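Write out the 3D structure for:
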Amino acid sequence: MDRTRLHALLARESAEAARRNPRSRAAYARADHLFGRVPMTWMNKTAGAFPRYLAAARGARVTDVDGHQYIDFCLGDTGAMAGHSPAPVTEAVHRRYAELGGATAMLPTEDAEWVGAELTRRFGLARWSFSLTATDANRWAIRLARAVTGRPKILVNSYCYHGSVDESLIVTAPDGTGTPRPGNVGAPCDVTLTSRVAEFNDLAGLERELAHGDVAAVLMEPALTNIGIVLPEPGYLAGVRELTRRHGALLINDETHTFSAGPGGCTAAWELEPDLLTIGKAIGGGIPAGAYGLSAELAERLLARTDLDLVDMGGVGGTLAGNALSVAATRATLAHVLTDEAFARMSALAERFEAGVRAGLDAHGLPWSVSRLGARTEYRFTSPAPRTGTESAAAADPELEDFLHLYLANRGILLTPFHNMALMCPDTTENDVDTHTEVFAAALAELAG
Protein backbone atom coordinates (compact mmCIF):
# COMPACT_ATOMS: atom_id res chain seq x y z
CA MET A 1 0.00 0.00 0.00
CA ASP A 2 1.17 3.50 -0.86
CA ARG A 3 1.53 5.01 2.63
CA THR A 4 2.04 8.51 1.24
CA ARG A 5 -1.32 8.26 -0.51
CA LEU A 6 -2.92 6.84 2.65
CA HIS A 7 -1.58 9.74 4.73
CA ALA A 8 -2.96 12.28 2.26
CA LEU A 9 -6.38 10.62 2.19
CA LEU A 10 -6.45 10.39 5.99
CA ALA A 11 -5.61 14.10 6.30
CA ARG A 12 -8.35 14.95 3.81
CA GLU A 13 -11.00 12.91 5.64
CA SER A 14 -9.91 14.30 9.03
CA ALA A 15 -10.30 17.85 7.72
CA GLU A 16 -13.69 17.00 6.27
CA ALA A 17 -14.84 15.53 9.59
CA ALA A 18 -13.81 18.73 11.38
CA ARG A 19 -15.61 20.86 8.79
CA ARG A 20 -18.82 18.81 8.95
CA ASN A 21 -19.10 18.66 12.72
CA PRO A 22 -18.59 22.12 14.30
CA ARG A 23 -21.07 21.52 17.15
CA SER A 24 -19.42 18.26 18.16
CA ARG A 25 -16.01 19.90 17.98
CA ALA A 26 -17.22 22.79 20.17
CA ALA A 27 -18.87 20.47 22.70
CA TYR A 28 -15.63 18.52 23.04
CA ALA A 29 -13.58 21.69 23.43
CA ARG A 30 -15.66 22.99 26.34
CA ALA A 31 -15.88 19.67 28.25
CA ASP A 32 -13.37 20.89 30.83
CA HIS A 33 -14.91 19.06 33.79
CA LEU A 34 -14.75 15.58 32.27
CA PHE A 35 -11.71 13.36 32.66
CA GLY A 36 -10.35 13.17 29.12
CA ARG A 37 -13.19 15.48 28.00
CA VAL A 38 -15.61 12.54 27.65
CA PRO A 39 -17.91 10.60 30.01
CA MET A 40 -15.67 7.54 29.65
CA THR A 41 -12.10 7.80 28.38
CA TRP A 42 -12.61 5.03 25.80
CA MET A 43 -14.88 7.48 23.93
CA ASN A 44 -11.64 9.11 22.75
CA LYS A 45 -10.90 5.95 20.77
CA THR A 46 -12.39 7.41 17.64
CA ALA A 47 -11.05 8.35 14.26
CA GLY A 48 -10.46 12.10 14.00
CA ALA A 49 -9.64 14.81 16.51
CA PHE A 50 -12.87 14.56 18.51
CA PRO A 51 -15.91 12.27 18.87
CA ARG A 52 -19.27 12.96 17.29
CA TYR A 53 -21.88 13.86 19.91
CA LEU A 54 -25.16 12.00 20.10
CA ALA A 55 -28.45 13.84 19.59
CA ALA A 56 -30.87 10.97 18.94
CA ALA A 57 -31.00 7.31 17.95
CA ARG A 58 -33.75 4.97 16.85
CA GLY A 59 -33.54 1.50 15.35
CA ALA A 60 -30.47 1.29 13.10
CA ARG A 61 -30.02 5.07 12.85
CA VAL A 62 -28.01 7.57 14.89
CA THR A 63 -28.23 11.37 14.56
CA ASP A 64 -25.45 13.61 15.85
CA VAL A 65 -25.72 17.16 17.22
CA ASP A 66 -24.70 18.58 13.84
CA GLY A 67 -27.79 16.99 12.29
CA HIS A 68 -26.05 14.18 10.38
CA GLN A 69 -27.82 10.84 10.31
CA TYR A 70 -25.83 7.60 10.17
CA ILE A 71 -26.50 3.98 9.35
CA ASP A 72 -25.29 2.46 12.60
CA PHE A 73 -23.34 -0.77 12.30
CA CYS A 74 -21.59 -0.04 15.61
CA LEU A 75 -24.74 -0.45 17.72
CA GLY A 76 -23.00 0.45 20.94
CA ASP A 77 -20.34 -2.24 20.36
CA THR A 78 -23.10 -4.86 20.87
CA GLY A 79 -24.96 -2.99 23.64
CA ALA A 80 -27.61 -1.90 21.11
CA MET A 81 -27.79 -5.12 19.11
CA ALA A 82 -31.55 -4.94 19.67
CA GLY A 83 -31.51 -1.58 17.88
CA HIS A 84 -31.77 1.81 19.55
CA SER A 85 -34.79 2.19 21.85
CA PRO A 86 -36.88 -0.70 20.48
CA ALA A 87 -40.57 -0.12 21.12
CA PRO A 88 -41.23 -3.18 23.35
CA VAL A 89 -38.32 -2.22 25.65
CA THR A 90 -39.36 1.43 25.71
CA GLU A 91 -42.87 0.40 26.74
CA ALA A 92 -41.63 -2.02 29.41
CA VAL A 93 -39.28 0.59 30.89
CA HIS A 94 -42.01 3.24 30.89
CA ARG A 95 -44.47 0.87 32.57
CA ARG A 96 -41.97 -0.17 35.24
CA TYR A 97 -40.54 3.28 35.96
CA ALA A 98 -43.39 5.70 35.27
CA GLU A 99 -46.55 3.69 35.78
CA LEU A 100 -45.72 1.08 38.43
CA GLY A 101 -42.71 2.91 39.86
CA GLY A 102 -39.72 1.41 41.60
CA ALA A 103 -36.61 0.91 39.54
CA THR A 104 -34.68 -0.50 42.47
CA ALA A 105 -36.31 -1.56 45.73
CA MET A 106 -34.12 -4.52 46.80
CA LEU A 107 -37.12 -6.76 46.14
CA PRO A 108 -37.44 -9.43 43.44
CA THR A 109 -39.99 -9.16 40.64
CA GLU A 110 -41.80 -11.95 38.82
CA ASP A 111 -40.08 -10.85 35.62
CA ALA A 112 -36.83 -12.34 36.92
CA GLU A 113 -38.05 -15.94 36.89
CA TRP A 114 -39.37 -15.47 33.34
CA VAL A 115 -35.95 -14.17 32.24
CA GLY A 116 -34.15 -17.02 34.01
CA ALA A 117 -36.35 -19.60 32.29
CA GLU A 118 -35.82 -17.96 28.91
CA LEU A 119 -32.04 -17.86 29.40
CA THR A 120 -32.17 -21.55 30.29
CA ARG A 121 -34.14 -22.26 27.10
CA ARG A 122 -31.60 -20.38 25.02
CA PHE A 123 -28.28 -21.34 26.62
CA GLY A 124 -29.04 -24.52 28.59
CA LEU A 125 -27.65 -23.42 31.98
CA ALA A 126 -30.14 -24.29 34.74
CA ARG A 127 -29.73 -21.48 37.31
CA TRP A 128 -29.25 -17.72 36.76
CA SER A 129 -28.28 -14.62 38.68
CA PHE A 130 -28.09 -11.01 37.55
CA SER A 131 -25.58 -8.18 37.37
CA LEU A 132 -25.50 -4.78 35.69
CA THR A 133 -22.56 -5.53 33.41
CA ALA A 134 -20.87 -8.53 31.86
CA THR A 135 -17.68 -7.44 33.62
CA ASP A 136 -19.36 -7.98 36.98
CA ALA A 137 -20.89 -11.25 35.80
CA ASN A 138 -17.39 -12.43 34.93
CA ARG A 139 -15.95 -11.24 38.25
CA TRP A 140 -18.61 -13.09 40.21
CA ALA A 141 -18.33 -16.24 38.11
CA ILE A 142 -14.59 -16.23 38.77
CA ARG A 143 -15.16 -15.94 42.53
CA LEU A 144 -17.61 -18.84 42.49
CA ALA A 145 -15.18 -20.95 40.47
CA ARG A 146 -12.37 -20.29 42.94
CA ALA A 147 -14.66 -21.04 45.88
CA VAL A 148 -15.90 -24.37 44.58
CA THR A 149 -12.55 -25.66 43.25
CA GLY A 150 -10.24 -24.26 45.92
CA ARG A 151 -7.83 -23.20 43.18
CA PRO A 152 -6.39 -19.70 42.79
CA LYS A 153 -5.82 -19.09 39.08
CA ILE A 154 -7.97 -18.25 36.04
CA LEU A 155 -6.90 -19.13 32.51
CA VAL A 156 -7.82 -16.89 29.58
CA ASN A 157 -6.88 -16.58 25.91
CA SER A 158 -4.32 -14.08 24.72
CA TYR A 159 -6.03 -10.84 23.59
CA CYS A 160 -9.38 -12.00 24.93
CA TYR A 161 -12.02 -9.53 26.03
CA HIS A 162 -13.89 -9.91 29.30
CA GLY A 163 -14.40 -6.26 30.19
CA SER A 164 -12.13 -4.81 32.85
CA VAL A 165 -11.67 -8.08 34.74
CA ASP A 166 -8.16 -7.92 36.23
CA GLU A 167 -7.47 -11.61 35.64
CA SER A 168 -8.07 -11.28 31.90
CA LEU A 169 -5.40 -8.64 31.18
CA ILE A 170 -2.66 -11.09 30.26
CA VAL A 171 -1.17 -12.08 26.88
CA THR A 172 1.37 -14.59 25.69
CA ALA A 173 4.98 -13.45 25.40
CA PRO A 174 7.08 -14.57 22.40
CA ASP A 175 8.39 -17.49 24.47
CA GLY A 176 4.83 -18.65 25.23
CA THR A 177 4.76 -17.54 28.87
CA GLY A 178 2.25 -15.09 30.28
CA THR A 179 2.94 -11.38 30.53
CA PRO A 180 0.81 -8.33 31.45
CA ARG A 181 -1.19 -6.96 28.53
CA PRO A 182 0.26 -3.61 27.37
CA GLY A 183 -1.69 -0.61 28.62
CA ASN A 184 -3.09 -2.20 31.78
CA VAL A 185 -3.61 0.68 34.23
CA GLY A 186 -2.95 0.36 37.96
CA ALA A 187 -2.97 -3.41 38.18
CA PRO A 188 -3.48 -4.57 41.80
CA CYS A 189 -0.72 -7.16 41.38
CA ASP A 190 1.30 -8.90 38.71
CA VAL A 191 -1.34 -10.63 36.59
CA THR A 192 0.78 -13.79 36.38
CA LEU A 193 0.02 -14.31 40.08
CA THR A 194 -3.69 -14.66 39.35
CA SER A 195 -3.82 -15.90 35.78
CA ARG A 196 -2.53 -18.22 33.15
CA VAL A 197 -2.85 -17.69 29.40
CA ALA A 198 -2.97 -19.77 26.24
CA GLU A 199 -3.48 -18.82 22.61
CA PHE A 200 -6.90 -19.38 21.11
CA ASN A 201 -6.95 -22.51 18.90
CA ASP A 202 -3.88 -23.91 20.73
CA LEU A 203 -4.87 -27.06 22.61
CA ALA A 204 -1.27 -28.02 23.34
CA GLY A 205 -0.66 -24.67 25.01
CA LEU A 206 -3.89 -24.99 26.98
CA GLU A 207 -3.00 -28.45 28.20
CA ARG A 208 0.47 -27.29 29.24
CA GLU A 209 -1.02 -24.53 31.42
CA LEU A 210 -3.78 -26.70 32.90
CA ALA A 211 -1.22 -29.35 33.86
CA HIS A 212 -0.02 -27.09 36.69
CA GLY A 213 -3.19 -28.07 38.57
CA ASP A 214 -3.92 -24.58 39.91
CA VAL A 215 -6.53 -23.35 37.42
CA ALA A 216 -10.01 -22.90 38.85
CA ALA A 217 -11.63 -22.04 35.52
CA VAL A 218 -10.99 -21.33 31.87
CA LEU A 219 -12.79 -18.08 31.04
CA MET A 220 -13.18 -17.74 27.29
CA GLU A 221 -15.24 -16.45 24.41
CA PRO A 222 -16.20 -19.33 22.08
CA ALA A 223 -14.82 -17.07 19.33
CA LEU A 224 -12.56 -14.09 19.97
CA THR A 225 -14.31 -10.83 19.10
CA ASN A 226 -12.75 -7.64 20.42
CA ILE A 227 -9.41 -8.17 18.69
CA GLY A 228 -11.26 -8.93 15.47
CA ILE A 229 -13.30 -12.09 14.97
CA VAL A 230 -11.13 -15.18 15.43
CA LEU A 231 -13.17 -18.31 14.80
CA PRO A 232 -12.48 -21.69 16.42
CA GLU A 233 -10.88 -24.35 14.28
CA PRO A 234 -12.65 -27.71 13.93
CA GLY A 235 -12.38 -29.71 17.15
CA TYR A 236 -10.89 -26.87 19.20
CA LEU A 237 -13.86 -26.15 21.47
CA ALA A 238 -14.51 -29.87 22.03
CA GLY A 239 -10.85 -30.18 22.97
CA VAL A 240 -11.15 -27.31 25.45
CA ARG A 241 -14.10 -29.00 27.12
CA GLU A 242 -12.29 -32.35 27.32
CA LEU A 243 -9.12 -30.81 28.75
CA THR A 244 -10.93 -28.73 31.38
CA ARG A 245 -12.80 -31.78 32.60
CA ARG A 246 -9.66 -33.92 32.63
CA HIS A 247 -7.75 -31.32 34.68
CA GLY A 248 -10.60 -30.44 37.07
CA ALA A 249 -11.10 -26.86 35.84
CA LEU A 250 -14.48 -25.28 35.23
CA LEU A 251 -15.36 -23.78 31.85
CA ILE A 252 -16.92 -20.31 31.68
CA ASN A 253 -18.27 -19.16 28.31
CA ASP A 254 -18.47 -15.38 27.97
CA GLU A 255 -21.22 -14.86 25.37
CA THR A 256 -21.46 -11.07 25.70
CA HIS A 257 -20.23 -10.45 22.15
CA THR A 258 -20.68 -13.95 20.73
CA PHE A 259 -24.42 -13.64 21.43
CA SER A 260 -24.41 -12.47 17.81
CA ALA A 261 -24.11 -16.13 16.77
CA GLY A 262 -27.80 -16.73 17.47
CA PRO A 263 -30.57 -16.72 20.09
CA GLY A 264 -28.44 -18.87 22.40
CA GLY A 265 -25.06 -17.59 21.27
CA CYS A 266 -22.34 -20.02 20.32
CA THR A 267 -23.28 -22.25 23.23
CA ALA A 268 -26.55 -23.25 21.57
CA ALA A 269 -25.40 -22.93 17.96
CA TRP A 270 -22.39 -25.21 18.50
CA GLU A 271 -23.86 -27.40 21.30
CA LEU A 272 -21.30 -26.39 23.89
CA GLU A 273 -21.46 -27.49 27.54
CA PRO A 274 -19.95 -24.83 29.84
CA ASP A 275 -20.21 -25.00 33.62
CA LEU A 276 -20.96 -21.27 33.76
CA LEU A 277 -22.00 -18.71 31.18
CA THR A 278 -21.80 -14.93 31.35
CA ILE A 279 -23.59 -12.36 29.22
CA GLY A 280 -24.40 -8.65 29.25
CA LYS A 281 -24.91 -5.62 27.03
CA ALA A 282 -27.48 -6.66 24.41
CA ILE A 283 -29.88 -8.59 26.64
CA GLY A 284 -31.24 -5.37 28.20
CA GLY A 285 -32.05 -3.67 24.91
CA GLY A 286 -29.83 -0.72 25.86
CA ILE A 287 -30.66 -0.70 29.59
CA PRO A 288 -27.67 -1.86 31.71
CA ALA A 289 -28.08 -5.57 32.40
CA GLY A 290 -25.94 -8.65 32.77
CA ALA A 291 -26.36 -12.22 33.93
CA TYR A 292 -24.49 -15.42 34.67
CA GLY A 293 -25.77 -18.96 34.50
CA LEU A 294 -24.65 -22.07 36.32
CA SER A 295 -25.18 -25.74 35.60
CA ALA A 296 -27.60 -27.45 38.00
CA GLU A 297 -24.76 -29.55 39.45
CA LEU A 298 -22.53 -26.53 40.08
CA ALA A 299 -25.36 -24.52 41.62
CA GLU A 300 -26.15 -27.36 44.02
CA ARG A 301 -22.50 -27.71 45.01
CA LEU A 302 -22.24 -24.01 45.80
CA LEU A 303 -25.53 -23.74 47.70
CA ALA A 304 -24.58 -26.77 49.79
CA ARG A 305 -21.44 -25.02 51.02
CA THR A 306 -22.47 -23.60 54.41
CA ASP A 307 -19.05 -21.97 54.73
CA LEU A 308 -19.74 -19.63 51.81
CA ASP A 309 -21.50 -16.33 52.44
CA LEU A 310 -23.45 -15.90 49.22
CA VAL A 311 -25.75 -13.30 50.76
CA ASP A 312 -23.64 -10.44 52.02
CA MET A 313 -19.86 -10.68 52.34
CA GLY A 314 -19.07 -13.16 49.58
CA GLY A 315 -18.01 -10.54 47.06
CA VAL A 316 -20.81 -11.64 44.75
CA GLY A 317 -23.57 -9.14 44.08
CA GLY A 318 -24.42 -5.46 44.00
CA THR A 319 -27.24 -3.29 45.30
CA LEU A 320 -28.53 -2.47 41.82
CA ALA A 321 -28.00 -5.94 40.34
CA GLY A 322 -31.23 -7.61 39.32
CA ASN A 323 -33.17 -4.36 39.77
CA ALA A 324 -36.76 -4.24 38.54
CA LEU A 325 -36.05 -1.87 35.65
CA SER A 326 -33.17 -3.88 34.18
CA VAL A 327 -35.05 -7.14 34.49
CA ALA A 328 -38.17 -5.67 32.88
CA ALA A 329 -36.06 -4.42 29.98
CA THR A 330 -34.38 -7.80 29.62
CA ARG A 331 -37.71 -9.61 29.53
CA ALA A 332 -39.02 -7.30 26.82
CA THR A 333 -35.81 -7.65 24.78
CA LEU A 334 -35.77 -11.44 24.87
CA ALA A 335 -39.52 -11.85 24.42
CA HIS A 336 -40.14 -9.36 21.63
CA VAL A 337 -36.94 -8.02 20.03
CA LEU A 338 -33.97 -10.41 19.91
CA THR A 339 -36.17 -13.36 19.00
CA ASP A 340 -35.25 -16.51 17.12
CA GLU A 341 -36.80 -14.99 13.97
CA ALA A 342 -34.91 -11.73 14.37
CA PHE A 343 -31.58 -13.54 14.62
CA ALA A 344 -32.24 -15.46 11.42
CA ARG A 345 -32.82 -12.22 9.55
CA MET A 346 -29.86 -10.43 11.17
CA SER A 347 -27.52 -13.29 10.27
CA ALA A 348 -28.68 -13.21 6.65
CA LEU A 349 -27.92 -9.49 6.51
CA ALA A 350 -24.46 -10.06 7.98
CA GLU A 351 -23.83 -12.70 5.33
CA ARG A 352 -24.80 -10.12 2.69
CA PHE A 353 -22.45 -7.59 4.35
CA GLU A 354 -19.62 -10.14 4.34
CA ALA A 355 -20.16 -10.86 0.65
CA GLY A 356 -20.06 -7.14 -0.15
CA VAL A 357 -16.77 -6.65 1.69
CA ARG A 358 -15.28 -9.74 0.10
CA ALA A 359 -16.25 -8.49 -3.36
CA GLY A 360 -14.48 -5.20 -2.69
CA LEU A 361 -11.34 -6.95 -1.50
CA ASP A 362 -11.32 -9.29 -4.48
CA ALA A 363 -11.81 -6.42 -6.93
CA HIS A 364 -8.54 -4.86 -5.80
CA GLY A 365 -6.65 -8.05 -4.97
CA LEU A 366 -6.17 -6.93 -1.37
CA PRO A 367 -4.55 -9.46 1.00
CA TRP A 368 -7.19 -8.87 3.68
CA SER A 369 -9.74 -11.26 5.18
CA VAL A 370 -13.32 -11.03 6.39
CA SER A 371 -14.98 -13.23 9.03
CA ARG A 372 -18.55 -13.55 10.27
CA LEU A 373 -20.13 -14.74 13.51
CA GLY A 374 -23.90 -14.78 13.02
CA ALA A 375 -25.03 -11.15 12.93
CA ARG A 376 -21.47 -9.83 13.34
CA THR A 377 -18.92 -9.28 10.55
CA GLU A 378 -15.35 -7.99 10.62
CA TYR A 379 -12.43 -7.56 8.26
CA ARG A 380 -8.72 -7.70 9.09
CA PHE A 381 -5.74 -6.38 7.18
CA THR A 382 -4.20 -9.80 6.64
CA SER A 383 -4.90 -13.06 4.84
CA PRO A 384 -5.58 -15.79 5.73
CA ALA A 385 -7.74 -14.80 8.67
CA PRO A 386 -5.86 -14.83 12.00
CA ARG A 387 -6.18 -18.02 14.03
CA THR A 388 -5.02 -16.54 17.37
CA GLY A 389 -5.49 -13.29 19.22
CA THR A 390 -1.80 -12.48 18.95
CA GLU A 391 -1.90 -12.90 15.16
CA SER A 392 -4.96 -10.67 14.97
CA ALA A 393 -3.34 -7.99 17.12
CA ALA A 394 -0.26 -8.04 14.88
CA ALA A 395 -2.47 -7.34 11.84
CA ALA A 396 -3.62 -3.96 13.21
CA ASP A 397 -3.00 -0.86 11.10
CA PRO A 398 -4.27 2.20 13.02
CA GLU A 399 -3.78 4.67 10.15
CA LEU A 400 -5.60 2.50 7.65
CA GLU A 401 -8.36 1.80 10.14
CA ASP A 402 -8.79 5.52 10.90
CA PHE A 403 -9.02 6.35 7.21
CA LEU A 404 -11.74 3.78 6.59
CA HIS A 405 -13.71 4.80 9.68
CA LEU A 406 -13.55 8.50 8.77
CA TYR A 407 -14.35 7.84 5.11
CA LEU A 408 -17.43 5.85 6.10
CA ALA A 409 -18.55 8.29 8.82
CA ASN A 410 -18.21 11.29 6.53
CA ARG A 411 -20.62 9.47 4.21
CA GLY A 412 -23.12 8.44 6.86
CA ILE A 413 -21.94 5.03 8.10
CA LEU A 414 -20.66 4.11 11.57
CA LEU A 415 -18.50 1.09 12.42
CA THR A 416 -17.33 0.13 15.90
CA PRO A 417 -14.52 2.60 16.73
CA PHE A 418 -12.31 0.00 18.41
CA HIS A 419 -11.98 -2.16 15.29
CA ASN A 420 -13.64 -2.97 11.96
CA MET A 421 -16.76 -4.62 13.32
CA ALA A 422 -20.22 -4.30 11.79
CA LEU A 423 -23.27 -5.61 13.61
CA MET A 424 -26.83 -6.06 12.35
CA CYS A 425 -29.94 -5.32 14.43
CA PRO A 426 -33.63 -6.09 13.78
CA ASP A 427 -34.04 -2.69 12.07
CA THR A 428 -31.07 -3.00 9.69
CA THR A 429 -32.11 -3.27 6.04
CA GLU A 430 -30.64 -4.73 2.88
CA ASN A 431 -30.32 -1.19 1.57
CA ASP A 432 -28.21 -0.28 4.63
CA VAL A 433 -25.87 -3.17 3.86
CA ASP A 434 -25.69 -2.31 0.16
CA THR A 435 -24.92 1.31 0.98
CA HIS A 436 -21.93 0.16 2.99
CA THR A 437 -20.82 -2.08 0.12
CA GLU A 438 -20.85 0.90 -2.27
CA VAL A 439 -19.04 3.31 0.07
CA PHE A 440 -16.49 0.68 1.13
CA ALA A 441 -15.75 -0.07 -2.53
CA ALA A 442 -15.26 3.65 -3.20
CA ALA A 443 -12.81 3.91 -0.28
CA LEU A 444 -10.79 0.99 -1.63
CA ALA A 445 -10.74 2.56 -5.09
CA GLU A 446 -9.32 5.77 -3.65
CA LEU A 447 -6.65 3.81 -1.79
CA ALA A 448 -5.73 2.03 -5.01
CA GLY A 449 -5.33 5.35 -6.84
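Residues 226 and 342 are 23 Å apart (CA to CA).
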